[in-house]
Amino acid sequence: MKEVNPKETTRAYAFEFWMRAPMPMVTFFKTIDVSRLTRISRRTGLKFNMLMCYCIGRAASGVKEFYMLPVGEKLIEYDSLAVNTIVANKNGEVSSCDVPFSDDMRTFNDNYLKLTRQVAESCENHDLTDSMVIGTSALAKYEIDGAVGMYSGIFNNPFLIWGKYRSHWFRKTLTVSFQFHHTQMDGAHAAIFLNRLQEVIYRLKIK
After folding, report:
1. CA-CA distances (angstroms) from residue 111 to 97, 100, 151, 168?
2. Pairing verdict, β 81-88 and 132-138
3. Distance, CA of 27 to CA of 162 (rounded, Å)
4. Model confidence at 85: pLDDT above 90
5. Best CA proximity match to 52, nearest among 84, 15, 80, 79
6. Gap between the Cα atoms of 112 and 79, Å rounded
7. Going by C-beta distance under 8 Å and a sequence separation of 6 or more, which residues neighbour residue 72?
């Protein structure tokens, strides 16, 4: 990771225009067909949430805007991505776990299982400060129509929230909210990412 001069990037205008905005976050909603993920999860025993996190990382890895993030008053460029998941810990509370993204699903799954287990037992967050972290929160037991994340003014990371997937005959759908800082990306970039997420899910293969 390194600090970059915003004026030398494609985000120059956005940095100047949105960094001092009182509410620079934008939220998109999209309903995604996750039928393939549910079938893979049932057939292989892989966790549905892990599969979602993997697909999010894979979709984001093809959108260059994800590798830059406003941090404080600076624009930081990263070499790697991570996907955050919220973990129910042994004390009945929740902890935060950053999982480094790997294009190899086996590696990502191994890290996901190891790190979430570690966080659940230790009740201590696992933070990766050298990667651009995509936040997620899964309210898998509850049917929700959408959620808008809180903007703290401290963390500018992109964030996805979803609830329980819905059944429609032979299809399973999931409404996802995606919150992002306008300095990091424009609406078109966010829409491209969400479209890529659906395509990644459609084409996902387990080796």
Report:
1. 11, 8, 29, 33
2. parallel
3. 13
4. yes
5. 84
6. 20
7. none
Give the pLDDT band (50/70/90) at residue 39.
very high
Q: Are 183 and 14 in contact (CB under 8 A)?
A: yes
The reported pTM is: 0.96
Using H for helix, E for strand and C for coil, what is the string for the chain?
Answer: CEEECHHHCCCHHHHHHHCCCCCCEEEEEEEEECHHHHHHHHHHCCCHHHHHHHHHHHHHHCCHHHHEEEECCEEEECCCEEEEEEEECCCCCEEEEEEECCCCHHHHHHHHHHHHHHHHHHCCCECCCCCEEEEEEECCCCCCCCCCCCCCCCCCCCEEEECCCEEECCEEEEEEEEEEECCCCCHHHHHHHHHHHHHHHHHCCCC
pLDDT tens per residue, range 10-27: 999 999 999 989 899 999
Tokens of 180: 């992002």
What pLDDT does 153 receive? Answer: 75
Please work out, in degrees rounded to the nearest 5, the angle formed at the alpha carbon of residue 103 by the alpha carbons of 100 and 109: 60
Query: Which residue in this structure is represented by tokens 């960094």?
Result: 19
Cβ atoms within 10 Å of 94's Cβ, excluding its own: 15
Amino acid 92 reads G
